[in-house]
Amino acid sequence: MTIIAIDFETANERRDSACAVGLAWIAHGRVVRRESRLIRPPELRFAPGNIRVHGILPADVADKPPFDAVMAEFLPDLAGGLVLAHNASFDIGVLRASLHACGLAAPPLAYLCTVQVARRVFPHPAGCGLSKVAGRLGIRFAHHDAGEDAYACAEIALAAMRETGAADMADLARRIDLPVTRVAGGPPPPPRAGGAISARVMQALRPAPSAPPRFVVRGSTGNRYDVTLEERAGAPYLRCTCMAGRHGVRCRHVKALAVGDITDLLSDNVADLAHVVRTLAADPIA
């Protein structure tokens, strides 16, 4: 049986907004393969809190493949093996929701949560978060990088096997009385009235701001610049007051805002930016 640890990072609060995946395969008592991929989520809406956690920006994934293309090579191993994840309900939820968002059936899965494993094998008053358990076990990794997190998850499971003397993961689950969770596969649920499709339609029909939106951004030296949506030759464009923008150059501030990157946005008008991103994407000569 294939044993594979998995970790997802998401762009925002939605489970179907995966922007990175990491995987680590276990065989013969060690990690034998590691993979990580960036993913373009269905919409380039990145929540500031998520960016602060994993550091992935919209510009980093704008040209990456979508979820179904990235995961195609890994699904056979996931469906036919035992999946490990730290706080597995989250990662399994991301996998299933993202497949459904692509119109694909979710495969049947068997998984083991390494948070629950750690609580039984390595209990500690400080808790059993990934970085805390890894730190206590001497596992070195870069937290919130999907590939690194999957590796740490796999190493925690291997450490639990050694600690309990288990012959394999199934034996580990039996020794610590932690049943393997199994979820049935199935097609995506039909859209509900007033559900996600209706929400997207309503968002697209939302009127534009009454005045041309203006965004205040932070420059590399800390200076503040204004970026305004204007019209030139019948097409919308963003104009920046930085030196490059004043000379007609498409500066980094404009490039970032055009894909929804709010890392340097100082003004409190993220909703206006969402409208601008949709406007630019809809106009082929913008």
From TrEMBL:
PROSITE patterns in alphabetical order: ZF_SWIM
Hydrolase in keyword set: yes
Domain SWIM-type per the UniProt entry, residue ranges: 225-262
KW Nucleotidyltransferase (keyword) present: no
Top enzyme category: hydrolase
InterPro entries noted in UniProt: Ribonucl_H, RNaseH-like_sf, RNaseH_sf, Znf_SWIM
SMART domains reported for this sequence: EXOIII (SM00479)
Keywords tagged on the record: Hydrolase, Metal-binding, Zinc, Zinc-finger
One GO MF term attached to the UniProt entry: 3'-5' exonuclease activity
EC numbers: 3.1.11.-
Top-rank taxon, per record: Bacteria
One GO CC term on file: cytosol
GO annotation, biological process: DNA metabolic process
SUPFAM superfamilies membership: Ribonuclease H-like (SSF53098)
Pfam families: RNase_T
Its biological purpose: DNA polymerase III is a complex, multichain enzyme responsible for most of the replicative synthesis in bacteria. The epsilon subunit contain the editing function and is a proofreading 3'-5' exonuclease.
Subunit and interaction comment: DNA polymerase III contains a core (composed of alpha, epsilon and theta chains) that associates with a tau subunit. This core dimerizes to form the POLIII' complex. PolIII' associates with the gamma complex (composed of gamma, delta, delta', psi and chi chains) and with the beta chain to form the complete DNA polymerase III complex.
UniProt cross-references to PANTHER family, sorted A to Z: DNA POLYMERASE III SUBUNIT EPSILON, EXONUCLEASE
Protein name: Exodeoxyribonuclease 10
Organism in which the protein naturally occurs: Methylobacterium symbioticum
Lineage: Bacteria, Pseudomonadati, Pseudomonadota, Alphaproteobacteria, Hyphomicrobiales
Gene field: exoX_2
